Amino acid sequence: MILSASRRSDIPAFYTEWFFNRLNDGYVLVRNPMNYHQVSRVALNPDVIDCIVFWTKDPTNMLNKLGLLKEYNYYFQVTINPYDSRIERNVVSKKNVIESFRKLSTLIGKKRMIWRYDPIILTDKIDIEYHSKNFDILAGKLKNYTGRCIISFVDMYRKSERNMKNLNGVIINNEDMVEIGKRLSEIAIRYGLKMATCSELIDLSSMGIEHAKCIDDNLIADILGENIIIQKDKNQRDVCGCVASIDIGAYNTCKHGCLYCYANDSDKAVNNNIMNHDPKSPMLIGKVEPGDKVIDRKMESYRNGQLTFLK
């Protein structure tokens, strides 16, 4: 099984103590975001976890804890964007994130480091030239520490529209996407980076930009050193190329406060959840409540095809 940590929150940046407590205890409880009282008990034994995919905007807290992952296979996706604190309100300085990215890459190898430049937004002050200039700067700093960059264009969910209303955002049309893709691809090629798009319908393959699998069976097979067969994740959008995984995060828990974020409803919701976070709890937020139905999640190792259940 592939463990996602996490699309819903930045576990490496904010919840590392909780995460490693879960590994130590050998399981985690995950509340279904669509059915509050449905809770999955997920085994975290190395024999059933084929790979852990970390998603983060700041991997600093993981640097001195990699020894705790010695029994696991894993890779990191690190988002580094050119936006300041008006948009990514609580993200630490990009200088510090880049430094941590480089240190992490030196420790685990560039193959296991994916740079995410996403989402791409346009406003009256952030135009295509802005992205070209800043992508070039970032690519130059990261070129020796990763071989791949994943991009996406902002999806204007209702909450994102509300949060970004004062930025004078510009709708990104297909012509914009093609032009941005062309500009960024030329830069990426110059620095030896492969590019891919995350959950985008538009075809930019003529520029050398493929469709990404952010949870990537090919990369995982390379890390494992053996062939594996994993189905597409049926819980993601049709346009998403990711293979199946179990996400152990929770919505409304990320403290970065990015205005474009799809995972947070409001600062109030995040603050309320943070108050109910206990690093020793099996759940990221709260505890098992009356009326909860806890079900052992079926766990399958794609390395041997055997089903294992947590007893």
Provide structural commentary.
The protein has helices at about 10-15, 15-25, 95-110, 130-140, 160-165, 175-190, 215-225, 265-275; strands at about 1-5, 25-30, 35-45, 50-55, 75-80, 115-120, 150-155, 195, 210, 245, 295, 300, 305-310. With about 300 residues, it is an alpha/beta fold. It has one domain (about 1-310). Strands 9-8-7-6-5-4-1-10 form an eight-stranded parallel beta sheet. Strand 2 and strand 3 form a beta hairpin. Helix 4 (about 130-140) runs parallel beside helix 6 (about 175-190). It is globular. Residues about 305-310 have low confidence and may be disordered.
Sheet with the most strands, sense and barrel status: 8 strands, parallel
Terminal CA distance reads 17 Å
The proportion of residues in beta strands is 15-25%
Total discrete domains: 1
Q: Report the uncertain regions.
A: 306-311
What's the total helix number? 8
SSE blueprint and pairings:
Blueprint: E1 2-5, H1 11-14, H2 16-25, E2 27-32, E3 35-43, E4 51-56, E5 74-79, H3 94-108, E6 113-120, H4 128-142, E7 148-153, H5 158-163, H6 174-190, E8 194-197, E9 209-211, H7 217-224, E10 246-247, H8 267-274, E11 293-296, E12 299-300, E13 307-308
Parallel strand pairs: 1-4, 1-10, 3-11, 4-5, 5-6, 6-7, 7-8, 8-9
Antiparallel strand pairs: 2-3, 12-13
List keywords for this structure.
311 residues, eight-stranded parallel beta sheet, alpha/beta, three-stranded mixed beta sheet, globular
